[in-house]
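Try it yourself: sequence plus 2-acetamido-2-deoxy-beta-D-glucopyranose, in.
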Amino acid sequence: MTSGTVVLCLVSLAVLHEIHGLDNGLALTPPMGWLAWQRYRCITDCDTYPDECVSEKLFKNAADLLVSEGYAEVGYQYLIVDDCWLSHNRSADGKLQADEKRFPSGIKALSDYVHAKGLKFGLYQDWGKKTCAGYPGVLGSEELDVKTFAEWEVDYVKLDGCYSNVRDMDKGYVEFSQHLNKTGRPMVFSCSWPAYQEDKGMLVNYTALAKYCNLWRNSGDIDDSWSSVMDIADYFALKQEFWAQYAGPGHWNDPDMLVIGNFGLTVDQSKVQMSIWAILAAPLLMSNKLSDVRPEFKEILQNKEVIRINQDALGIQGKRVFRDKRIDIWLRPVEPVHLGHYSYAVAFVSRRSDGAPFAYRISLADLGMNSSNGYTITNLFEKNKSPYNNAYFTQKSFLRVRVNPSGVVFLRVNASPINPDIDRDNANNATNNVVFI
Ligand SMILES: *[C@@H]1O[C@H](CO)[C@@H](O)[C@H](O)[C@H]1NC(C)=O
Ligand SMILES: *[C@@H]1O[C@H](CO)[C@@H](O)[C@H](O)[C@H]1NC(C)=O
Ligand SMILES: *[C@@H]1O[C@H](CO)[C@@H](O)[C@H](O)[C@H]1NC(C)=O
Ligand SMILES: *[C@@H]1O[C@H](CO)[C@@H](O)[C@H](O)[C@H]1NC(C)=O
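Structure, out:
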């Protein structure tokens, strides 16, 4: 690709269609929290796995750790139960109920516990006869079930799509959203229907998704591996010209959970997932064993500057804009905006496996950054390493980065304000500066 192509891609970043988002006042930035599925799946044998089975003990413990380990403080707010919490039977009056043995205190008590920690409580269900793991689904009892959720003071509903008619999903999920609204309790609504419809090659109605859901799963489940993370990233890049326009405050594309802190990703690969998810304005839902997350992974999950990119108030979903020498460049326009010039998050992601960190060089202008007021640059994962952090650069300056194999260099490039303090002569002198990072 030539640099001209880069600029063309960027222009489309700024063209925002008018999207009517779900009007429940929630998820104005991508939801952050913890979701059980990826790490804990459907472990129900509490005798053999007392600390890992899907039970009130697991969720109370996770709620405790979200707070005590500092995750809540940086924004991880939603504690979300996934499949396998249910009893196989509804109650005599037809209500959903939790498995008695694993949730002896019931869901309302768990919800109260989570709220007392200052967190929000999420629950899983399925728009089908059964959930994916074979427990009772909501189909046929939708109104009663949303009423039950409201009684339990649920703050977030993930609605899966197993055992249902894929063709009727858009109708069914829309009605479910309307039922949720009628309870009067604002609940974040996470929809799974596009993942099922995309899988069948159907044309998905993203206008309806944005109008009736706060977030939606576009693709299949993530696994605990580098190949799974990059498959999802590649799929989002493939579809980005269509999907990105539907993201914005209150309505987000969802590439699925963060697998950081588990078994499958190295430290560098974890930084890649965190960076791409920040660029994509993706929900940041960890699925890991919070008591066992090693410090170097916790630091990635709690990187405030990276979270700030993810939570940027403009809510513009970024894109992969450039591929060259097996380096992928991802870009997201963020605040502050000065004189009509965005600031940017820029991720250089290496798909390489040859030993030495790969040196890559590109000018700000070639990335479409041409504000005549110039830019300041922060290296988000290596704040103390770059001597050029917060130095001043013009559009002709070059970014020169070294990217580890299956690693990332993640930068914030801030547009400078009109500022009488900026020394114009100095700025002109800085023209040919090269940033070594
Ligand atoms: C659940 O209901 C089925 C019939 O629908 C019954 O056979 C079974 O014994 C019930 N199980 C429990 C645990 O109540
Ligand atoms: C229900 O929808 C109306 C109209 O869009 C909105 O004003 C209201 O806040 C919604 N209520 C809830 C609880 O989502
Ligand atoms: C998509 O959803 C929107 C909003 O609900 C609706 O107005 C439109 O008719 C739908 N489009 C199709 C093709 O079904
Ligand atoms: C800066 O780039 C944008 C597109 O990226 C273009 O629309 C604009 O005209 C350029 N401005 C200058 C001063 O080159």
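One thing you can check immediately is this: The first strand starts at residue 32 and ends at 35.
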